[in-house]
Amino acid sequence: MPKTSHAAEAIWMVSREYDRLAGAGGVKDVARQLAEALVRTGRQVTVVLPAYGFLEPAAAGFAPAGDPFAVDMPYVGVERREKVQLWAAVRQGVRLLLVEADRFREKHSVYTYTAEEEAKDPFHRQGSGHYDYFAMNVLLQKACLAALLREGVRPAVIHAHDGHTAILPAMMRELEGFRHWLRDTGALVTIHNAGLGYHQEVDDLPFAQTICGLPGRLILRHQLHGRFDPFLAAADYAVMTTVSENYARELQETDQDRLTGWLGHTLAERGVRITGVTNGISPADYDPSRPQQHGLAAAFDAGRGDLAGKAICRQTLVDRLAAGATPGLDQTGFLASRPGQPLFTLISRFMAQKGVDLLVAALADLLPRDPDFQVLILGSGAKDLETALMQLAADPANQGRLCLLRGFSATLADQIYAAGDFFLVPSRYEPCGLTDFIAQLFGNLPVVHHVGGLVKVVDGETGLAFHEPTAAALTAAMERALALFRSQPQAIRAMQQAAVRRIHDRHTWDRVVSRYLDLYQRARPR
Fold it and tell me: b/e map of 152-186 (b: 16 or more CB within 10 Å)?
């Protein structure tokens, strides 16, 4: 039998993403950077996530953690078990546990099917979510609980990230064995995105009850519009948080909550308050004074106003785009060499939530009216938005002014952050936003819709903000940016330095981590 551990300072996290292993959005950055910040406070941190098909555990430095074991995964009327193998490694002091299972290994992307998968099975359409998403989530959570028993660990708290892992607090309190073993363990759930489509809910209630093993009364109680909702299920057993103070307010005090199906108001009616903690950032991960870690052509320091290297980075990237040297990406258009012109940048998923449709309309209006700026866009997403951006980039009238790169490259993203003067974040809603932080550290001033976590950008001081989710409002903000760039370059330099200073003063993970330590203490059973 494993030796029992009552590690008061042990923290376990469960996540579908982890930066530098598996990622699709901001969850990966929070999971890694918060875990590493917790380690720096002396805590023992373990993070559990799936071993997807694009991960090779042994090649990535992981070693088997014990023998394989079986996890009960019954369907209605069918007794089933699935084989699991855990793999362990330590990175930056964080112990990582990969859960290997056939259900995960057959997936080539974190949340959606790839073109390769569609070629093998036309029912697995590229970009569509995995058909067995709910079972994937349940298997991960059950495997995490089983790992705690097998290793004889009782952590102080289990931190579940997003709807993919939000059923775990109910499991640890309701399932026989776990509720006794983990009676002194607290639970915290972070809502990274409460928007429709992000809850991981399921409408087959008998299936949900069977595969989770939870009481029927619990499944029936925690429905949102007739579907079993993991966030509602978590709220009876865990401290509920989200990734900025303003997003928490919007969810429970404004009609912005309509975008969630009224999740926030439903929780409020049940007496559950969502605590907002604005995500931090680790500036050392985005430091242009160390160009080699970002593939930059030269070093610079936006916080000190040393920007000579930034101009070199831009010219090098412009030359690369002119040569079409973007392997793995679909490039439409290019940027002519115009060093004195302002460069707008966007790195985003192309979807309505991110306001990309607003940008298409704004560019269609502004490009013909103002010939002296350029635009560089990286990302992918909805086909109609991709098509609209491609048409703008291919328009002969925009030759040399607009370049679209479809796909993603982390190194190229850093180079775009470094090259740009203004970074566009026109999201209709944004729980926190990390790209605005990253852009600021690279001297790229954000132009944001003043909503959710984006209110951390102070209009006129650390970036520019607009208040209505319309193309006209975005266009006006871009025109303000152009006017400042051309007539008040000293104000631009002051904003760049103030933005970096504000991040170091308020928003590093080493400052934010204390908020989570307080919440972990609050989550502990009394």
Answer: ebbbbbbbbbbbbbbbbbbbbbbbeebeebbeebb
